[in-house]
Structure formats: structure tokens, C-alpha cells
Here is the input.
Amino acid sequence: MNTKKIANHKKTFARQGKVDRALRELPLHLMLLPSLLLVLIYSYGSMAGVGIAFQNFVPTKGLFDSEWVGMANFKTLFSLPDMWQVISNTLFISISKMIGGVIAPVVFALLLNEFRSSAIRRSLQTMVYLPNFLSWVILAGIFIDLLSPSNGIVNAGLKAFGIEPIFFLGDKKWFPITMIVTDIWKGFGFGSVIYLAALTGIDPSLYESAVIDGANRWKQTLHITLPGITSTIILMTVLSMANVLNGGFDQIYNMYNPSVYATGDILDTMVYRLGIEQVQYSLATAAGLFKSVVSLVFILASYYLAGKFAGYRIF
Amino acid sequence: MNIKASLSRKAFLAINFIVLSILALLCVLPFVNLLAISFSSKEAVTSGKVGFLPIGFTASSYSFIMHSPAFLKSMGVSIARVALGVSVNLLLVILTAYPLSKSTRQFRARTFYSWVYVLTILFSAGLIPSYMVVRYTGLLDSIWALVLPGGLPVFNMLVVMNYFRSLPPELEEAAYIDGAGHISTLVKIFLPVSTPTIATVTLFSFVFHWNSWFDGMIYMRMVDHYPLQTYLRTVVINPEAFFRNTSNLNSDLQILLGLVSARTTNAAQLFLATVPILMVYPFLQKYFTTGLVMGSVKG
Here is the structure.
């Protein structure tokens, strides 16, 4: 009798506990509600929209009534005469940017770190960070003017050295190089911030004992400074792998023109032209999906490697 | 030996200083050239004389664009977009980061929700499906098309969430014992101690919204609804477009028109578009480092 009563009480308490707990968690669910709705509609809604890639999509019919065609769009896509050229353009530009985008900030951070005066350091930093915060529309406007073969200041400078004007944005040999260099130019300064932070974290006593052992500055850089930032370099390299198919739409779209498509057209610009300009929704979605799936593999691999070698976690 | 070492050290530092100064100048001089062109006379610019100082100083390019309805309208759209976009971003970032900063013991669904948000940065559906959703939700040609699809910047949210998680648990326990609910814990305890982090993500949002141009180009059908950067694209690509309807200008503007060229007005418009970034620049330098490791990962 008594034990039964106690058991009943326990049950009530347990139920009460559950209700209490749910009540205490309720505001947390409610706080998530607005962002959850937006994410469900705009992110997951568009993820469902990749179905377009497997359809002969007609906007007026919508996703549910358009005809399903299986992999036909992908077959068409990969039989396009330009497809492989576009992929190789994308890889050349993105991989060059990845390599330059790691090396340039590291070198800049190491050289800047040699100055003890914080006034010098800060004024140099203030100047090199600037391009990072401006949009490619503005930068394209500036570069189109600067690099113009007829009245740009760069070609005026080259002319002073007796060099023929170079059509940086109109010559298909120069265009990808111009994209790579201007992208590194935009990002190297601000990219060095993370290495500078890592450099300040190196234990100064290491340098003191190296000096006692007779190591010169070069030896110190080689045996203390570089090993001190290696994990940061590895982390940034691995994370940049996620961009393997990102040639840089904002930059290229604002500076390219049909005369450089042969070397400058990348996956994203092709998707844009197919989808928005030529209204071939299904083909453009297929190209975009191809890019997203390959990117996903690289992103997952890069997070895995970053976690393994640098202990990096996103949440 | 010692003297020799310090001598070569000095030589190295001198060369290093020169090299880095040249690099730094390369980052700034394009903007100086832009500014010089915008303040130079049409003739000096055409003859290619303008380097880093204005020649034949005049502000007529600026007076001229101040009378350009297209420029002013797009500036208005951009200001509205930044105000709306940054507020929505900030509100949603805070509201989302707080519940996700709880432990799974306090909030059992935390892991599930976290994955729901993080998955969105791992996989992007691509241009056409995103465009279709905006179209089907009726946002085409509305300023909300520039605000709602990216209403929750997931990386900013992760930055704030990680900061909340780093706060000492005693803070929250004390608030709980005092009978504070979740909302008052967030507003009265968490937010006041998180101002640097909140400032960081506010600046992230500001720069993002000010610089965005692509969404304006695909979601806005009427040119009047273009934000500034989208509008600038049209004049950058086709400089003469700015002068298309000049016949119906009043006489004052006709006089100004004689003093400016596509290059000088372009330069002036581009420079005005960088001014807001220059205004927040000191804060950017101070706060951006915080979220850099997070922000460097792109989906």
C-alpha cells in the first residue's frame, strides 16, 4: 500500500519534472523560431529546388508539374563544347589564388613582424587592409580605369620604361593572371592578421635562449618563428581548400568580357549566363549543383583535416 | 663580429621597410588616383596627366552627380537596405546564438538545431533555386529580397554563440537563482558583457550589406530599386550610360556637363561609395580580428 503510494508520487514528480523542463525550454524554442523559419524557406526551400536540375523546368508549371528528365541535363552540360575549358579555367584561377592567398599573407606577416616599432607596424597595416573591405564593383571600376591600355596609369608607367601597352583585361593571356594578382592584392593584407596574432603568441623566452645559443635572426626565423605559426598555416591552407571551385564570381563577372571567355570564364559565370541571361534554368541548376556537390566534398574534407591537424571545430 | 651583425641587421630593416612601404602604397595609391581623377578637370583627365594629385582642381563632377536622380535614388536604397539588413541580422543572430549556446543538458534539442543551421553553410543550392524561392515568395522587386534570404548570417551567429559559451556559467546561475527568465538573462546579463563581439558582427553585417550588388541585380527588375553598388556596376561597365538622358537637363546642369566626363563622374561616384567604409574603418581594424578565424571559412 505504502510503496504503491510512493511509486505514484515518484511518477507524478517525474511527470512534473518533464513538464517543468519542457516549460523552461519553451522560450528557447521560441527564440529560434524566426531564424528557423527563414532558414527553412530560403535555405532548405532552395535546396529542394535543386530538383530543377533533373527536370525540364518551366517556371509557370513550377517544381511539381514540370517534366522529370533524369540525368539528361547533366549529359547536355558535359557535352557542351566549353564545359571542360570552363572547369580547367576555374581550377587554374582558384588554385593559383589559394596558393598565393596563403603564401603572400605569411610572408607579409613575417616581414612586418621584424619591426619593433608599433607606429610603423600600425601605419603599414592600416594601408594594406583597405582593399579587403571594398566590393569588387568598386575595385573593378578602379582597375578598369587603372589598367586601360589607352589612358590608364599602369600602362603610362610601362610606357615610360619603353614597354608596349598591355591590355590586361582584354587579352586572354593576361586576364587570368590579372585576376590572380588583383585577388591576392585585395586579400593579403587582411589575411596576414591571423598570422600576426599567431606570431604574438610565440613564447619570447624561446628567442632569448636561441640568442644565447648563438642563433642569428635567420636561424631564429627558421627554427622558432616558422614552427610557431605552422599550425595556423596548415589550418588556413586546409580551410581554403573549400574554395577549389570558387574562381571568384564577383571579381571576374565585373571585369571580364567575351574576348577573354576562353581563359576567364569560370563555372559561376557560366551558371549565371546560362540561367539568368539565356533562361536555361534546368541546365544552369545542373551546373550549379555539380559545383555544390564537389564543393561539399571538399568542405567536409577540409573540416575533417582542420579538426585532425589543428583541432579546429566550427561549433 | 657584433658590429657587423648589427650593421647587416640595419641594412635588412631598411630594405624591409622600403619593400613593405612600396607594398602598402600599392594598396592605397589606386584610391588616391581615383580621388585625384574625381577632382580634376575633364581636359587634364583626357590628356592623361592626372597621377596622384588633382590637376585643374574642380568639384564639378561631385556637383553633377549630386543632381543625378539615379545616383541619389540608389544611395537611398542602399541606406535603407543597410539599416534594415543590419537590424534584422543582429536581432536574429542574438536570438539564435543564445539558445544554441546552452549545454545539451539545459536545452536538449541544441545539437539538432545546430546542425539545421550549419548544414546551410555546407551546401548551397546554387543560383537558380535560390532565385526561384525568392520569386515564389513574392519578394522580387522588394527591398526584403535583399534582407530576408540572408536574414541569419550563420557565421556571425557562430561567432556570437562561441562567445556566449565562453562566459563563466556562474553569471547565468546567479541570474537563474534571482528568478530571471531566459529573455532577461540574455538582455540584462549576456548582452552587456558581449559588446565587443556584438560590435564585430554588426560591422560584418554593415560591410556585407553595403558591398552587396549581385542580389540587387537579379532580384530587382526596376533600375530605381537598385542599391548603390548594383547601380554602380551599370555605370562602371558602360560609362556613357550615365550621360544618356542629358538633353532634358536644365541650363545650370548643361554648363556642368561641359566640365565633366565619364571618367571624372565615374571616379566621383566610386569614391563616394567607399566613404561609408572609410568612416567605419577605424572600428573595422579594431574589431574584425575577433571573428576572422570563423569568417575565413566560406561555403
Q: What stands out?
A: Chain B touches chain A through 101 residues (CB under 8 Å).
